[in-house]
């Protein structure tokens, strides 16, 4: 019997991503709201910040303050090349040899499921699955030959700004 559990993992850009080299923009780990307490000059300041926690190989932990607008959940699936598929990712269907048949899709979480939506419809915020949406599952990944080609935050030239 196949194990139906999956890792609840997220990736997101760090809060200060604009100040960092591109290879340090994204961080993967576990999402949490962190209660930050500062005590400057005997005044207690509390605020809740969005964070990603990562576990180190030595058992330690790192915490990164994040840009919550770029939060992406791992779908638990990989593309045809073994690359992880993330929410807000852009995937290309390459089931045909003819490049004219290749199509770009955005991965979204709708109605309790991950689906891939044709990019021409991806700009509209939705809460219900539509007939042109396809359920993101291993069978459809193989059928469509899905390959991760980017995300809506870093690849606006692909998405046309579809957020």
Keywords:
single chain; mainly beta; five-stranded antiparallel sheet; elongated; 163 residues
Description:
The chain has 163 residues and is mostly beta strands. The chain is built from two helices and eleven strands, in the order E-E-E-E-E-E-E-E-E-E-H-E-H. The strands form two sheets. It has a six-stranded antiparallel beta sheet, with no helix packed on it. A five-stranded antiparallel beta sheet has the order 10-9-8-7-11. The radius of gyration is 18 Å and the shape is elongated.
Short description:
The protein has helices spanning 138-144, 156-159; strands at 10-13, 26-38, 45-55, 61-65, 72-78, 84-86, 89-93, 103-110, 113-118, 134-135, 146-151. The chain has 163 residues and is mainly beta. The strands form two sheets. The protein has a six-stranded antiparallel β-sheet with strand order 4-3-2-1-5-6, with no helix packed on it. A five-stranded antiparallel β-sheet has the order 10-9-8-7-11.
């Amino acid at each position: 019997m196949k194990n139906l559990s999956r890792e609840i993992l997220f990736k997101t850009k760090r809060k200060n991503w604009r100040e960092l080299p591109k290879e340090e923009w994204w961080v993967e780990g576990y999402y949490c709201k962190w209660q930050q307490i500062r005590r400057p000059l005997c005044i207690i300041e509390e605020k809740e910040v969005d964070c990603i926690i990562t576990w180190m190989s030595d058992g330690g932990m790192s915490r990164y303050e994040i840009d919550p607008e770029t939060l992406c959940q791992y779908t638990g699936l990989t593309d045809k090349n073994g690359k992880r598929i993330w929410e807000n990712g852009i995937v290309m269907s390459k089931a045909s040899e003819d490049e004219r048949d290749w199509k770009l899709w955005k991965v979204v979480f709708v109605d309790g499921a991950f689906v891939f939506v044709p990019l021409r419809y991806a700009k509209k915020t939705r809460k219900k699955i539509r007939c042109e949406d396809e359920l993101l599952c291993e069978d459809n990944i193989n059928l469509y030959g899905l390959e991760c080609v980017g995300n809506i935050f870093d690849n606006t030239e692909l998405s046309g700004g579809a957020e």
